[in-house]
Amino acid sequence: MNFIKVLTLVTALGYVGLTSAQAEEVNTLPTIKVMADSELREEVGIVPFQEDKGARKALQHHIQKDENDIQNFVIGDNIAAIDIQPSMSQVDMNQLSPLQQEYVLAVAQGLQSSDPTKGLFIMLQPLGVDRGKALDAVSNNESIKFNFDTNRLNIMFGDKWKK
Length: 163
Prior knowledge:
- The chain is mainly α.
- It has a domain at 98-162.
- Helices cover 52% and strands 0% of the residues.
- It is built from 7 helices and no strands.
- The longest helix is centred in the middle third of the chain and has 19 residues, at 53-71.
- It is elongated and about 135 Å long.
- The model has no long low-confidence stretch (mean pLDDT 80).
C-alpha cells in the first residue's frame, strides 16, 4: 500500500512539474509609445540625409519631360471656340417712357464705367442726393440728406413711387 501511495505522489508531482512552464526570462510584447520629437531623437538619433543620385537624375528627367510636353502642347483642329458668356435676352424698354429709358441707360452706363459709383449716384439723383455733398458727408461721418423732389418723381415714375 505504501508503494501505491508513493507512486501516486510521484506521479502527481511529476504531472504538476510537467504542466508548469519553466521560463528563464519573460518576453514583453512590443507596444506603441507616444514620444515627443526630442525623445524620439534621443532614441533613434539623427539620420543623415543620403542623396540617391540615380533617383535625383530620374526625377529631373521626368520634370524636364513634363515641362517640354507643356510647352509643346498643340491644340488640334477639332477644338471649337467656347462661348462662356450666356446669351442675354434683349430688354424691351418700349413700355417705359423716353425719360425713363434715358434714366435706365444712364444708370447702366454709369455702373459699367471705371467708377461704378457714377451709376449709383445717378440712381439717387431723383431723391435729391448730390455726389459731392454725399461724399463730403461720408468723409465727415455725417448722414446723407435726401431732398425728395415730388415733381421730378411724378414726371419720371408717375404715381408708382408713392406706393
